[in-house]
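re: ur msg from earlier - yeah i can do the zinc ion complex, just paste it... oh wait u already did. ok heres what im feeding in:
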Amino acid sequence: MASNKKQKRKILIVMMDGFDPAYLQASDMPHTKQMIANGFYKTVKGVMPSVTNVNNTGICCGGPPSVHGITANSYFDLQTKKEEYMDKAAMVLAPTIFERGAKLGMKSALMTAKKKTQSLLRTGAEIRLAAEAPKDAEGGGIDWVARLGPPPDIYSPEINHWLFRATQIVLNETNTDLAYFHTTDFPMHMEPPWGEKSLFHLSEWDKLLGETLDAHPDLEVYMSADHGMNFKSRCYDLNKVVPNKGGEIFFAMSAERDPYVKHHRTFGGTAFVWLNTPGDFERVADICRRLDGVEAVYDRYTAAARFLLHADRIGDMLVTGDINTVFGPLEGKDGVEEMPKEFRTHGGSDEAIAPLIIYNREVDPRLWRELAYNFDLTKPIGF
Ligand SMILES: [Zn+2]
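and the outut:
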């Protein structure tokens, strides 16, 4: 007997870590390109600092850091004078898409490569899996390792394929209405878009997408990225460079700092600087602006306004690098180091870019201008 019951929506949000539009262009991804041809596509802005936690939380909460509060991968605790990871759910000030869906009775799954995302975006998801640590998975009652074998190393492209198979299990076998699928950008850090391993990574990933769409032809897919990726040739340690040039600061921190050191040695294109006294601003800003490769220097409130940041959760000063330049802790006393030629990372304004793809969901063309940032990805979902 034919049922006239309205079909339940099934939603897949893909947060493809480090998926610079250049990777989309260079890779053999027929199913992804089919979604573009038959759906909605736009290249959009990412948020500064262009690091993962900032943009991942933005996509998951549907807003900028001024709303959700995650302004970097780390924060500097002024009391203990220690850098701490910004990866706890309690720091997120806005509801996740999982919490918003739960109000409508929808069940969600958070499927991520990285442990830090399981702790940051956990709220409201019934099933939670970080491929890096399947023994800490929560909900769903699935023995992931028994089903899929042990996950490949977190520093491998194959871990994203393993995670996609886990996401297929969630879509095929559980009553999950919405799955949030977050990969690792390790393959993008390792190779440019034309690299052999990168091509392998994305074409295999795309095959799994094809399988998934065959099994669920009506699956709504919302896909974007947290940031792009570029070669970088130079790194500054502002904790050393500024004093070397006669200035004084309390502390400088790379907004990129996270536990995944093999990716980028914690170097990134944005630094937060804390001053000893507000009166030091002009002197320190002048020193930073004269450094080759420094793109711009902002005071706290200008930076917050310009980049939609939460003013209480950044430094007194925000320094950005040009396309070649990053910031982070260095060994030598000079405070500047040339990077090896294969070094790729993100964090600056040149990586604040992402593709935005929506498939199987009609997008009102009048929304074109409103879909300006990666955090606008979930707007057309409608809750
Ligand atoms: Zn990332």
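cool cool. Residues 196-215 form the longest helix (20 residues). ping me if u need the other ligands too
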